[in-house]
Amino acid sequence: MPFPGFPADFLWGVASAAYQVEGAVDADGRVPSVWDTFCAEPGRIAGGDTGAVATDHYHRYREDVALLKDLGVGAYRFSVAWPRVISSGSGLDFYDRLVDELCAAGIAPAVTLFHWDTPQSLEDAGGWLNRDTAARFADYASVVGSRLGDRVKLWMPLNEPVVVTMYGYALEVHAPGKGLGFAALPVAHHLLLGHGLAVQALRAAGCDGIGIAGNHGPIWPASQSEVDTGAAETYDVLANWLFADPILRGEYPAPELAAAMPGPVLADLKVISEPLDFFGINYYQPTLVGAGDSAGSMLPPGLPFAPQPIDGYPMTDFGWPVVPDGLSEIIGTFRARYGDALPPLYITESGCSYHDPDPVDGRVADPDRIAYHDGHLRALAAAMAAGADVRGYFAWSATDNFEWAAGYRERFGLVHIDYPTQRRTPKDSYYWYRDVVQ
Ligand code: IFM
Fold it and tell me: What angle, rounded to 10 degrees, do the helices at 91-104 and 57-71 form?
């Protein structure tokens, strides 16, 4: 402290996502999502947890917005639940109220439209393997944009399409848990097409400030050998550029990938590469990749690359290496790769899970989380000093929440949640971030 290099209009925010916080899965006509289905399948989620109640944000949003106001953030990134909007119920009213509450608190709403909760009825019709889902997504974007566009500052049609493709369809780690391997590639194309169509739909509804929240990080080769660098390059293409190149360059990063995609790919790429007002990077960690079979890693056996543990850095309690310089590295890689085609950036997520102690006398000591954000903000300041146009940083997450397949054990929040009572306790990192923001 103080942090150098952040302009006065830098947007300080925190982020969340509908299924991770809202609960109220049966309220006001919400229909089931793939995550309701997945959580109900034995053995899918650690501890048998589900998002059915989560942090009960749906009912406690006023208390949560009051905490955000005290935190002093300029923006709150949350997602709209498609299953609340697709229904004939009144779920969209909730977001109207939330947006009004935020605006009254002087906090700019930043809206994600798809943070993984595909309505189950659409999944039953093929989900993101079905091209029609992209069109349905654009219809949904139009409805939400028309209703909230007068008050929302930033729009992100998609959150982390790589995670949906890889964990949800190629593997079985996330909903819908298909385990298709490379047969999941069409999912990437339909998500990207849905993104492009949603960008058009939002613009047609009069919205601006439109981007994406992609998950990106450096891919490091396990050694400088030809086989390891080759494996790392392949992984880099699949994890980073398969998703960013179509948007920022209007092309797939390899002809084999373009050939694997369904439909009129060249025409679709024109839609997918609609110019954006910003590009959002969610950064958590680099990935170290070597040659060899993926057996023994979290990937299925038989793939031509093997993610390996990264040694020599502190680890979060989730087992993720803490590598702040990876943030400046990935920003530098984006700048080098896309040059003038790169719009302004936001860091739309960064954060860490530690198994924090329970509150003692109203206090939760979480020095490692403070160190995490401190390190990453310093790395971000260095990237900006080197010329990167970064407009804001969203700490993941506002409160502890449902961490997907890992359930409630993992805690990313600046605010502690005592799940049995739903009591909110700001952690030390909350007060630290408040000082940074001020
Ligand atoms: O909790 C997730 C979030 O939903 C998407 N980005 C990564 C976070 C931590 O795993």
Answer: 20
Paired tokens of 269: 């790429």
Buried/exposed 371-381: b ≥16 CB within 10 Å, e otherwise: bbbbbbbbbbb
SS3 348: strand
* Region for 23 from its dihedrals, namely left if φ exceeds 0, alpha if ψ lies in -120 to 50, beta otherwise: left
Instruction: Work out the number of other CB atoms within 10 angstroms of the CB of residue 250.
Output: 15
Question: Which of the residues 22, 349, 403, 410 is marked catalytic?
Answer: 349
Q: Which of ligand 1's atoms lies nearest the C-alpha of 15?
A: 3
Active site residue 226: no
Phi, psi of 247 (to 5 degrees): -75, -45
CB 142 within 8 A of CB 194: no
Taken in order 296, 299, 304, 306, the sign of the CA dihedral is negative
The arithmetic mean of pLDDT across residues 121-148, rounded, is 98
**The pLDDT of residue 427:** 99
Nearest CA owner, ligand 1 atom 1 = 403
> What is the C-alpha separation between 76 and 72, in angstroms, rounded?
11
Tokens of 285: 């960690």
Q: Please, are residues 79 and 18 in contact by the beta-carbon 8 Å criterion?
A: yes
Residue 351 Cα: closest atom of ligand 1: 9
172 is catalytic: no
Domain locations along the chain:
11-437
CA of 403 relative to ligand 1 center, distance in Å: 7
Q: Where does ligand 1 bind, in terms of residues with CB under 6 Å?
A: 17, 20, 160, 282, 349, 396, 403, 412
C-alpha to C-alpha distances, 422 to 55, 107, 155, 218, 434, nearest whole angstrom: 6, 23, 29, 37, 22
Please work out, in degrees rounded to the nearest 5, the angle formed at the alpha carbon of residue 367 by the alpha carbons of 71 and 408.
75
The structure's pTM equals 0.98
CB 110 within 8 A of CB 26: no
Task: Residue 43: name the closest of 301, 405, 408 by CA.
Answer: 405
Of the chain, the percentage scoring pLDDT greater than 90 comes to 95
CATH T-level topology, domain 11-437: TIM Barrel (3.20.20)
Take atom 9 of ligand 1 and give the residue whose Cα is closest: 403
What is the predicted pLDDT for the residue at 88? 84
| DSSP state at residue 201 | H
Q: How far is CA 23 from the centre of its chain?
A: 19
| Planar angle of CA 221, 331, 290, nearest 5 degrees | 10
Give the tens place of pLDDT for each residue, 324-343: 999 999 999 999 999 999 99
